[in-house]
Specification:
The protein contains 6 helices and 9 strands; from the N terminus they run αββααβαββββαβαβ. By secondary structure, the chain is an alpha/beta fold. It has a single domain, classed as Rossmann fold. It has a 7-stranded mixed β-sheet, with helices on both faces. A two-stranded antiparallel ribbon has the order 1-2. α3 packs across α4. Bound molecules: guanosine-5'-monophosphate. Guanosine-5'-monophosphate binds next to β2, β7 and α5.
Length: 175
């Protein structure tokens, strides 16, 4: 994206957080900078405005921050993909493996209609496990995953390749 380098410059890397050896990409400086945040949202809106999306499925919790304004701007619906146990109505879920243990993402069973064109959004792709679980869950329940979109891809970890190998497109504003 044209703003990729600029967006990258306003993301902070915090060493050894949440544990030693991890370089955490902190997007809060980007959110604090109103012109950077606008350029970020505009980058997604520009890419998806002609794609006739029915819904944006955004991943709990930082995916919500970008998914909601993009859905508002595109005039499509917003679907939260949540961590296990947060949604009150009937749910469908997908379990995936983490480095240590397992995690689960959930959707309301009435979140979208069969055949709906859906964009999945999250802030960052590392191993790709979270995004892939969301993509599988949406596909399994009859949604058409148009693409997956993120602010930051960490290509050296291999998540985006994994997602593409599973047949889903990946758009990253910066990497
Ligand atoms: P993955 O499932 O691809 O390994 O990890 C991506 C998920 O973990 C995303 O939901 C993302 O919010 C979170 N995550 C992992 N590492 C980071 C990081 O360095 N910065 C941010 N902002 N989120 C991260």
């Amino acid at each position: 994206s044209i703003y990729g380098d600029y967006i990258k410059s306003v993301i902070r890397t915090v060493p050894d957080w949440p544990q030693p050896g991890v370089n955490f990409r902190d997007i809060t400086p980007l959110l604090q900078n109103s012109s950077a945040f606008r350029k970020l949202i505009d980058s997604f809106v520009h890419r998806y405005q002609e794609m006739e999306l029915d819904a944006i499925a955004a991943i709990d919790a930082r995916g919500f921050i970008i998914g909601a304004p993009v859905a508002y701007e595109l005039g499509c619906s917003f679907v939260p993909v949540r961590k296990k146990g947060k949604l009150p109505f009937r749910t469908v879920s997908e379990t995936y493996t983490l480095e240590y243990g397992q995690a689960e993402v959930e959707l309301h069973s009435d979140a979208f209609r069969r055949g709906d064109r859906i964009l999945i959004m999250d802030d960052l792709i590392a191993t790709g496990g979270t995004m892939l679980a969301a993509a599988k869950l949406i596909t399994r329940t009859g949604g058409q995953v148009v693409e997956t979109a993120t602010i930051i891809d960490l290509p050296e970890i291999g998540g985006s390749s994994r997602i593409r190998e599973a047949g889903f497109g990946v758009f990253a504003v910066c990497s």
